[in-house]
Fold:
Amino acid sequence: MAKSHVIGLDIGSTAVRAVELMFSGGPGKGAATLVRYAELPLPPGAVQDAEVAEPETVASVLRELWKVGRFSTRDVIIGVGNPRVVVRDLDLPWMPMAQLRAALPFQVQELLPMPVEDALLDYYPTGESETGTGRTLHGVLVAATRQTVRSNVMAVESAGLRPQMVDLNAFALLRSLARGELAEQVVAIVDVGARVTNVIVAARGVPRFARTLPSGGQDVTDAVAGHLSIAALEAEKLKREIGIGFAVPAELSAGANAISEVTRGLVEAVRNTFVYYQGNNPGAGIDVVLLTGGGGHLPGLGQYLSTASRLPVAFGDPLVHVKVAGTATGQLPASGSLMAIPMGLAYGVAA
Structure:
């Protein structure tokens, strides 16, 4: 295997997806070419609340994914992203990064909603300044429970894969989408997954705020199925026929109400996230919102979010920033937005 090939692996709530990128300048550097992509569905309950609940079940699907995808290596970059992962701004006295990471447990133990000994910690520097107390480092603290990371790693290793790094899904979204002109703007990315929605705001390519919301597209499907007493597959199809914000015949009004109820709560949570960010960053308002993830393709959701937030909303497509090799053209999903997280994980090898 050439060292310039990197695989990003996204273990979602309802599916696993893997992307193999080839870089012209070494791992994570230079122009990127998509050489392979594959995805497979997961059985219900294998992943719960964006955390692997049945490692061997997930491992079995991953082994099949590698057969289907014919990936060139078993080395992978994996991601985490659920409401138990804490992401917050944090200023610290400047020190070399190795020393800073070693000191993190003592610096942040009062800030965490979990015992510091149960947390895996990382720090992403975003800048520095001189203050009254000396040189200060500005950055983002990431804290995940050890169990959240361990369960994902166990499933990957049980499949015979070799995790090289564990990254934050929100950072992966930023790497795959905030490129070109968008790297010079203040961009909010909203990735609506099956059970969680990741929101990250970046100013000129630098992450400023990230939040994971405990709701996604599958919750909308479940609401439709419950209100109409129909199977999940039928509810999923009907959900996409009805959409949000459209007139529907009387016989579909119960389904439309179910969609509206769940979607309204999600959109309000996203809007409040934007308000919180802008309130803490005066003069650095959001320029554009990028919508990704399978749940983001609910008809009318983009317009609904745009109206609620008073911001322009567009679909994010990571494929505009890469070449696509012939080995991948027959494997791509209907929407490139489904590839945003695994592609960003592959980019993260150089982070």
About this structure: The mean pLDDT is 91. The longest helix spans residues 253-280. The two ends are 21 Å apart (CA to CA). The domain at 5-82+147-180+317-350 is CATH 3.30.420.40 (Nucleotidyltransferase; domain 5).
